[in-house]
Specification:
By secondary structure, this protein is mainly β. The chain is 6% helix and 36% strand. The strands form three sheets. Strands 2-10-9-4-5 form a five-stranded mixed β-sheet, with no helix packed on it. Strand 7 and strand 8 form a beta hairpin. The longest helix is centred in the first third of the chain and has 9 residues.
């Protein structure tokens, strides 16, 4: 990860292009001139300061707060972050079954709308949190994503299948199990921009 605190306020935007290849120049120019609407998402977290490292979205609930003595514990750019020349709205989250057994699946569905004036892609991300488990679990984990193209003003219904595999974990005996309990499903545009939440209950 790269720290940008010394210069981030002096630029209007940051394009993270990694290794774009021989056609990279044309692709970057198309984005800068507005001929293409970008939809890339960060696969890592960018910190505000190197003193925050290690900084990951899927940390364990260790009691670590969001504030340091001299800076925030929040990232500069979170995991899954990315900008677009249009905007999107999420609504209407619902589950096909609110209560399932450890071997069953449920489908979470919702609607997404392009509320801007330009066609564009949105990368919808699904995060899951095991609310209470027998071993320490991450506060959230990316479990799925979909890249969807929406014309200006268009609305689509999307869904994710929540399978036992997505809910499974390694217990203290290093056995892969699905523990009964509540699982929080979070849908959004990044790990820090959650738009929809719902609870799925797993029973024995």
């Amino acid at each position: 990860a790269v720290t940008m605190s010394n210069w981030i306020d002096k630029v209007q935007a940051v394009a993270s292009v990694w290794y774009p290849g021989e056609a990279g120049g044309d692709a970057i120019a198309a984005i800068l001139f507005g001929d293409y609407n970008p939809a890339g998402r960060l696969p890592i977290t960018f910190p505000q300061h190197e003193g925050q490292l290690p900084l990951v979205y899927s940390h364990k609930p260790t009691g670590r707060g969001d504030d340091y003595n001299n800076l925030s514990g929040l990232p500069l750019f979170p995991f899954g972050y990315g900008l677009s020349y249009t905007s999107f709205a999420y609504s209407g989250v619902q589950l096909s079954a609110n209560n399932i057994s450890t071997s069953d699946s449920s489908v979470v569905s919702f609607t997404i709308s392009n509320t801007g004036s330009r066609d564009g892609d949105e990368v919808v991300q699904l995060y899951i949190r095991d609310v209470l488990s027998t071993v320490a679990r991450p506060v959230m984990e990316l479990k799925g994503f979909q890249r969807v193209h929406l014309k200006a003003g268009e609305t689509k219904t999307l869904s994710f299948v929540i399978t036992p595999e997505l809910l499974s974990m390694l217990n203290e005996k290093m056995e892969r199990v699905v523990e009964p309990g509540a699982f929080q499903l979070m849908i959004g545009a990044s790990s820090s921009e959650i738009k929809l939440k719902t609870i799925l209950n797993v029973v024995e």
